[in-house]
Specification:
single chain, 324 residues, alpha+beta, Structural Genomics Hypothetical 15.5 Kd Protein In mrcA-pckA Intergenic Region, Chain A, Pseudouridine synthase, 3 domains, four-stranded antiparallel beta sheet, globular
Length: 324
């Protein structure tokens, strides 16, 4: 039997956007459900571009997954916060976030399911509990929803840019100034659908970059996401000629020896996360120091004893200053 979800529209917008937000799935996934006749507004099928009125009931029938069953696994997982509604985890680099062809095991979702606790089901087994994602080779903080209600509230907060996500990034070369904003749409690369690109007709995307330190061949940056497009930070930095160090896909993968960076690792870490608890409304603030491999790389490029000696190099460099 197909699971059915019923929602009441709380904010006007295109049907695919509304369904994606309420169900906690991507706009593309929502559009696929709508095209398949699995979304009804007041009992009627509508187009993805239809704008339902506030208060309208939306019914969504989620088809059973055609992929293999997702099983829980006992995998190392760093949990930095947990209560009855959410978890915050510090994902290790090299761990894929959710199962997909070629990666059915060893993912963050497998690890979460292996803990034997409930997870929000809005995105299906493959994306159980996921509020947002990180690339395989990006480390750092992620929010996981345990309940469907928490997932809906947090998905709305993401859409409304009320969840602050800041990343530490090392880029090749030097920015033209200490503060740079890239506001360019991101979409699929028409020449290679496996990649993303600055694309006319892509989804709006803005990243604010603040330089924390300038070294011989690289800059250490704090990247503040105002949207959460796939590969957004990597695409935006590559578009201005300063790709993320270690990014093999977008032009930053060479010369790893200069920065003491391991193979298949990019210098990108989700280090700071701020949001309101989906149930209590309490302000939450989580910080994840650089993992050992990135700390070693930063020490190598900085050659500064005071950075090397400090237990949290990001704190020393002012990463967590709200005004910086």
């Amino acid at each position: 039997m197909e699971p059915t979800h019923r929602f009441e529209v709380d904010e006007s917008g295109r049907l695919d956007v509304v369904v994606g937000r309420l169900l906690g799935v991507s706009r593309t996934q929502a559009a696929t459900l709508i095209a398949g006749g699995r979304v009804l507004v007041r009992g009627r099928a509508e187009r993805a571009s239809f704008i339902p009125e506030v208060g309208a009931e939306i019914t969504v029938s989620v088809p059973p997954s055609e992929s293999r069953a997702i099983v829980g696994e006992s995998l190392p997982l760093s949990v930095v916060f947990e209560d009855d509604e959410i978890l915050v985890v510090d994902k290790a680099a090299g761990m894929v976030v959710h199962p997909a062809p070629g990666n059915w095991t060893g993912t963050l979702v497998n690890a979460l399911m292996g803990r034997g606790q409930g997870l929000a089901a809005g995105g299906g087994d493959e994306r159980a509990g996921l509020v947002h994602r990180l690339d395989k080779d990006t480390s750092g903080l992620m929010i996981v929803a345990k309940t469907d209600r928490a997932l809906r509230v947090l998905a709305k907060a993401i859409a409304e840019r009320r969840i602050n996500r800041r990343y530490a990034a090392l880029c090749w070369g030097h920015l033209g100034s200490d503060d740079v904003t890239v506001d360019q749409p991101v979409g699929r690369n028409p020449s290679d659908r496996r990649k993303m690109a600055i694309a006319v007709g892509g989804r709006a995307a803005r990243t604010d970059f603040h330089r924390l330190a300038r070294f011989t061949s690289v800059d250490l940056l704090r990247a503040h996401l105002h949207s959460g497009r796939t590969h957004q930070i990597r695409i935006h930095l590559a578009s201005i000629g300063h790709p993320v160090v270690g990014d093999d896909t977008y032009g930053g993968g060479g010369a790893r020896r200069l920065v003491a960076l391991p193979p298949k690792r990019q210098f990108l870490h989700a280090a700071w996360l701020q949001f309101q608890h989906p149930t209590t409304g309490a302000d939450l603030d989580f910080r994840a120091p650089l993992p050992v491999d990135l700390r070693d790389s930063l020490n190598a490029v900085s050659e500064m004893p005071e950075i090397i000696a400090h237990p949290d190099s990001l704190e020393y460099l002012g990463f967590y200053r709200a005004d910086g």
